[in-house]
């Protein structure tokens, strides 16, 4: 049996880094994550074994405790409040999100108004908004920009990391028409599109395809659909317990891809089971 | 004037992180980088102002000094030698390369022979080879695999991060034919193809395109060619000193992309000059 694992599969870099930083900073005392660090119950349980616990209110954090800022990032005010509380901050903001914070801070200090394309209720966006030194406006739809009547001298346009390129393009087009001095920096992260594209390519090149992830995870379901559209031998499993290896002995090459919230060890365990039992 | 900066432009994540780590760990004492941290003379000069100096022989590093392992990574033996010398290691190995080291160490410990597709003289590959606990073979061409006659039980196949997908595919095809139990993990990093694709897309959407980077940088030259193929108003500059803004006032939207060794501040200075002088 040959197993091919998709190039871009599983956790994005920012989430992996946040979890690694939390574990690296864990100890016998509780290490807090401010909000949920990942939406996967197996992984949250694993983190509990390192005394890593989510907390949703800064007031609930003990003085001198460690708190991990998750990959989504936080507004500047959160850092100020945590410092006032004498808490030790482990900053696991995704570096691609951190870049957005720096751009907002720098350009708004230099008199730019910031337009952020994204969803104003998404925690990444509310965090980013909290780094502006001047005006910042969030637009989720090109129509909102059409209807926006403010006269502005200089504009910086950025994107929430997870929006679609098509939304960025349609918003940029309207901004181009309405304003004169604009710097566009497309800050969309390619993790999602890379994961989907590499799943599609792999599915087309193998005899059967396994998609690993939570049954409720919408991004994993999307991977399943993409894979199934090019390879009808596509199967969806949450973890190794669900798979019957016997069924896969008829295939020579099996491809594997995993959703954004699927830990690597879940995939590793499944690969091991496949390889061991297929030799029997 | 509107300026659009390509999404994937300039330093890859691993190089940016290595430089940030070096600066963060710099002090009044010399901080060494073991080998060149970046191939860009302006940036090397900037790092000298932080007392960051390259060193090419471990013997030349003072006891108790800090040494940065650059993004390419190092074999395990280098860590052992540095520790024996009582040197403080700042490990700036690119996380994508570090993943290759872990995979090689884990799978070779579990009885797998490792096939690494890449160039056996590239520093990333020589570093990766030094993490195997058993046999590791490097192949730079599918023909080398055709001619390889060793009988092997279980194989892990990985890629140097910077090879082309077409090389991976052609090697994987031969390995598929010759061997039975194989795990393929495509570890190609997408930084180069993303940079080229986003330059191509941006060039097609703007009135003129500026490519920023060293005149001798082959990856920057490649960006220039790609951009020019879709937009004849493509210009190549090393830095802000070379650009005459007057010439660009006829364009409404200007796109910017930068080579892999071009620091962000070189791009920022050029953008500032464009915006300031175009308003005059």
Mind explaining what this structure looks like?
2 copies of one chain form a homodimer. The first copy, chain A, is of the alpha/beta class and 280 residues long. In chain A, 41% of the residues lie in helices and 20% in strands. Chain A is built from 10 helices and 12 strands. The first copy, chain A, has helices at residues 13-24, 41-48, 76-84, 95-109, 123-129, 142-146, 165-178, 191-205, 218-230, 264-279; strands at residues 2-5, 31-34, 52-55, 66-69, 88-91, 113-117, 136-139, 154-159, 181-185, 208-212, 234-237, 253-258. In chain A, the strands form 3 sheets. Chain A has a 4-stranded parallel beta sheet, sandwiched between helices. Chain A has a 4-stranded parallel beta sheet with strand order 3-2-4-5, with helices on both faces. Chain A has a 4-stranded parallel beta sheet with strand order 7-6-8-9, with helices on both faces. In chain A, strand 4, helix 3 (76-84) and strand 5 form a beta-alpha-beta unit. In chain A, helix 8 (191-205) runs parallel beside helix 9 (218-230). The longest helix of chain A is centred in the last third of the chain and has 16 residues, at 264-279. Chain A is flat, with a radius of gyration of 22 Å. The model of chain A has no long low-confidence stretch (mean pLDDT 94). Chain A binds chain B through residues 1-8, 13, 17, 95, 154, 172, 176, 179-188, 190, 194, 198, 252-253, 271, 275, 279, and chain B through 1-8, 13, 17, 95, 154, 172, 176, 179-188, 190, 194, 198, 252-253, 271, 275, 279. Strand 9 of chain A pairs parallel with strand 1 of chain B.
């Amino acid at each position: 049996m040959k197993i091919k694992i998709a190039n871009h599969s599983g956790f994005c870099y920012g989430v992996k880094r946040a979890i690694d930083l939390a574990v690296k900073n864990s100890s016998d005392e509780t290490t807090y994550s401010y909000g949920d660090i990942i939406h996967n119950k197996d992984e949250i349980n694993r983190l509990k074994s390192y005394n890593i616990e989510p907390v949703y209110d800064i007031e609930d954090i003990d003085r001198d405790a460690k708190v991990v800022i998750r990959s989504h990032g936080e507004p500047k005010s959160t850092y100020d409040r945590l410092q006032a509380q004498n808490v030790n901050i482990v900053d696991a903001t995704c570096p691609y999100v951190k870049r957005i914070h720096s751009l907002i801070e720098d350009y708004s200090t230099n008199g730019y108004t910031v337009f952020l394309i994204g969803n104003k209720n998404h925690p990444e966006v509310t965090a980013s908004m909290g780094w502006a030194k001047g005006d910042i406006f969030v637009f989720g739809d090109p129509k909102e920009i059409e209807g926006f009547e403010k006269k502005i001298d200089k504009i910086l346009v950025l994107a929430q990391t997870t929006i679609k390129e098509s939304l960025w393009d349609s918003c940029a087009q309207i901004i181009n028409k309405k304003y004169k001095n604009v710097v566009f920096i497309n800050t969309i992260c390619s993790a999602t599109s890379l994961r989907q594209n590499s799943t599609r390519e792999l599915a087309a090149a193998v005899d059967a395809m396994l998609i690993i992830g939570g049954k409720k995870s919408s991004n994993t379901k999307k991977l399943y659909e993409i894979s199934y559209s090019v390879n009808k031998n596509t199967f969806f499993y949450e973890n190794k317990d669900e798979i019957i290896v016997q069924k896969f002995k008829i295939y020579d090459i099996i491809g594997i891809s995993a959703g954004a919230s699927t830990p690597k060890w879940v995939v590793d365990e499944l690969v091991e089971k496949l390889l061991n039992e297929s030799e029997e």
